[in-house]
């Protein structure tokens, strides 16, 4: 069985999310970084056309010690409330990335509040510890105060902290540690992020959390497989939000390798995948085994009008 960890990153713009993901990619079993992908995509429009799908994406999948770590980007703004809620439903933890010099910003606060309300236990990553005059320990105290202010529970308040210089490619569990790799952050992810729930032996259930349109392959639906496995060309039933059942056939299935979208023949419970081939697919719908039709609990899809405090 595939070992999977699903996390989202919460970060204020410029606190180093791209640099951090690149550092993790470079030190993992995955090849490409943002820079390399960008270069390759620039001279590979033909390749993209041939594969029939846009290669760029905001998500990444990183291999480490036999695990596949899916990293989902979160928009850090209240305008994306509904999308944030859905992303948080798909993951089992979040990395709260905070600049060691600038500290917590309003935009990160909003998404953190949602994550805590979802019952997720964040891992706090204090980045840019190489910055002169930065005060990582003081920032941790401020993050703690923020958790208290946002109503974190006792378990959430005991958040693990990892200190990083994404730019220089190292992470530390304690500021006194000597480290020249990202290993401590990888280890924290494997240790603290809960394994995805769900049973691979059960019949297929997947929930669509986001849709997009691709000019080559049409409507795409992304979501998490909660039970069973999904296969290319498989006949399934789509359960609409109103309970209506529609027979359909899965076309292609995409997952990630580094920052690249790749096509796979099958995927299993716990994984987050994108499927093509169903033109009427929509957010909140369940993809179910055709002989054992079971709907997943409905998700909130209204964009909430929340004000930032
Ligand atoms: P994002 O907007 O969160 O994706 O941030 P980026 O990864 O693009 O980083 C924003 C800026 O911060 C860039 O100029 C990076 O080089 C810089 N940066 C990222 N990580 C570090 C770090 O660990 N130390 C220092 N000094 N700068 C960093």
From TrEMBL:
<dbReference type="GO" id="GO:0005829">
    <property type="term" value="C:cytosol"/>
</dbReference>
<feature type="domain" description="Tr-type G">
    <location>
        <begin position="2"/>
        <end position="197"/>
    </location>
</feature>
<keyword id="KW-0378">Hydrolase</keyword>
<comment type="subunit">
    <text>Monomer.</text>
</comment>
<dbReference type="GO" id="GO:0000027">
    <property type="term" value="P:ribosomal large subunit assembly"/>
</dbReference>
<protein>
    <recommendedName>
        <fullName>Large ribosomal subunit assembly factor BipA</fullName>
        <ecNumber>3.6.5.-</ecNumber>
    </recommendedName>
</protein>
<keyword id="KW-0547">Nucleotide-binding</keyword>
<dbReference type="GO" id="GO:0043022">
    <property type="term" value="F:ribosome binding"/>
</dbReference>
<feature type="binding site">
    <location>
        <begin position="127"/>
        <end position="130"/>
    </location>
    <ligand>
        <name>GTP</name>
    </ligand>
</feature>
<dbReference type="GO" id="GO:0000049">
    <property type="term" value="F:tRNA binding"/>
</dbReference>
<dbReference type="GO" id="GO:0019843">
    <property type="term" value="F:rRNA binding"/>
</dbReference>
<keyword id="KW-0820">tRNA-binding</keyword>
<keyword id="KW-0699">rRNA-binding</keyword>
<keyword id="KW-0694">RNA-binding</keyword>
<comment type="function">
    <text>A 50S ribosomal subunit assembly protein with GTPase activity, required for 50S subunit assembly at low temperatures, may also play a role in translation. Binds GTP and analogs. Binds the 70S ribosome between the 30S and 50S subunits, in a similar position as ribosome-bound EF-G; it contacts a number of ribosomal proteins, both rRNAs and the A-site tRNA.</text>
</comment>
<feature type="binding site">
    <location>
        <begin position="14"/>
        <end position="19"/>
    </location>
    <ligand>
        <name>GTP</name>
    </ligand>
</feature>
<dbReference type="GO" id="GO:1990904">
    <property type="term" value="C:ribonucleoprotein complex"/>
</dbReference>
<dbReference type="GO" id="GO:0005525">
    <property type="term" value="F:GTP binding"/>
</dbReference>
<dbReference type="GO" id="GO:0010467">
    <property type="term" value="P:gene expression"/>
</dbReference>
<keyword id="KW-0342">GTP-binding</keyword>
<keyword id="KW-0690">Ribosome biogenesis</keyword>
<keyword id="KW-0963">Cytoplasm</keyword>
<dbReference type="GO" id="GO:0003924">
    <property type="term" value="F:GTPase activity"/>
</dbReference>
<comment type="similarity">
    <text>Belongs to the TRAFAC class translation factor GTPase superfamily. Classic translation factor GTPase family. BipA subfamily.</text>
</comment>
<dbReference type="GO" id="GO:0009409">
    <property type="term" value="P:response to cold"/>
</dbReference>
């Amino acid at each position: 069985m595939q070992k999977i960890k699903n996390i989202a990153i919460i970060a204020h713009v410029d606190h180093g999310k791209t640099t951090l993901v690149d550092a993790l990619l470079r030190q993992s079993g995955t090849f490409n970084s943002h820079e390399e992908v960008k270069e390759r995509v620039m001279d590979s429009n033909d390749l993209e056309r041939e594969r029939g799908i846009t290669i760029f994406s905001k998500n990444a999948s990183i291999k480490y010690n036999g695990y596949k770590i899916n990293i989902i980007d979160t928009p850090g703004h209240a305008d994306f409330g509904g999308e944030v809620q859905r992303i948080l439903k798909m993951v089992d933890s979040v990395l709260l990335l905070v600049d060691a010099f600038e500290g917590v910003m309003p935009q990160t606060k909003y998404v953190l509040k949602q994550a805590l309300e979802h019952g997720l236990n964040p891992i706090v990553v204090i980045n840019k510890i190489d910055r002169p005059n930065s005060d990582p320990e003081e920032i941790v105290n401020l993050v703690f105060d923020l958790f208290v202010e946002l109503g974190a529970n006792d378990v959430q308040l005991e958040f693990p902290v990892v200190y990083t210089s994404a730019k220089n490619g190292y992470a530390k569990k304690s500021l006194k540690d000597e480290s020249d790799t990202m290993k401590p952050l990888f280890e924290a992810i494997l240790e603290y992020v809960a394994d995805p729930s769900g049973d691979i032996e059960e019949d297929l259930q997947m929930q669509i959390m986001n849709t997009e349109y691709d000019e080559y392959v049409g409507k795409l639906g992304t979501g998490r497989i909660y039970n069973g496995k999904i296969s290319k060309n498989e006949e399934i039933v789509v359960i609409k939000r109103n309970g209506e059942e529609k027979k359909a056939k899965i076309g292609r299935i995409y997952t990630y390798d580094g920052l690249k979208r790749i096509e796979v023949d099958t995927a299993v419970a716990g994984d987050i995948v994108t499927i093509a081939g169903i033109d009427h697919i929509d957010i909140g719908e369940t993809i179910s085994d055709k002989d054992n039709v079971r709907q997943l609990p409905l998700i909130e899809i209204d964009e909430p009008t929340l004000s930032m405090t």
